[in-house]
Amino acid sequence: FNAAISACEKAGEWEKASHLLGAMTQDKVQIDTITFSSVMSACEKCSQWKQALHLFVAMSQALVEPNTVTFSAAISASEKGSAWEKASQLLILMKQEQVESNRITYSAAISACGKVGGGFASVQCYGSLKH
């Protein structure tokens, strides 16, 4: 399933990726961090940011631990949706859960903050990155 979902992600077929995730759940196939990250990335790439964030929440309900890639996909989705507050919240959660961040995470978060909140939001976002 993960290979098929990854192919959907690369092709920008977020609906098919979501459908495969649903099929995995229905068939009681174990869903892991890679599965969620791939479907979230497919949603993010197709500007389906609300769906990506919904999957991020569903991930914790499925008791699957998020990693750097998952958080980055959720933050990038927030950026696409101009949801800078959500991006900032995700950064804080990422630090609380002691998940390592990277350049992609920082770039997406600062971009999300600057897109809607302007300079002040970017500075606030940058401040949350440092602490």
Summary, kept brief:
With about 130 residues, the chain is mainly alpha-helical. It has helices spanning about 1-10, 15-25, 35-45, 50-60, 70-80, 85-95, 105-130.
Task: Name its key features.
131 residues; mainly alpha
Written description of the protein model:
By secondary structure, this protein is mostly helical. Helix content is 79%, strand content 0%. It contains 7 helices and no strands. α3 (33-45) packs antiparallel against α4 (49-61). The longest helix has 28 residues, at 103-130.
| SS-derived structural category | mainly alpha
Global mean pLDDT: 85
Q: Taking Cα atoms only, what radius of gyration do you get, to the nearest Å?
A: 14 Å
| Poorly predicted sequence stretches spanning 5 or more consecutive residues | none
Beta fraction: under 5%
- Biggest pleated-sheet summary: none
**Structure summary, number of beta strands:** 0
Taking the alpha carbons of the first and last residues, their distance comes to 38 Å
Q: Name the helicity range.
A: over 70%
| Number of helical elements | 7
Give the CA-based shape. Answer: globular
- Order of SSEs, N→C? HHHHHHH
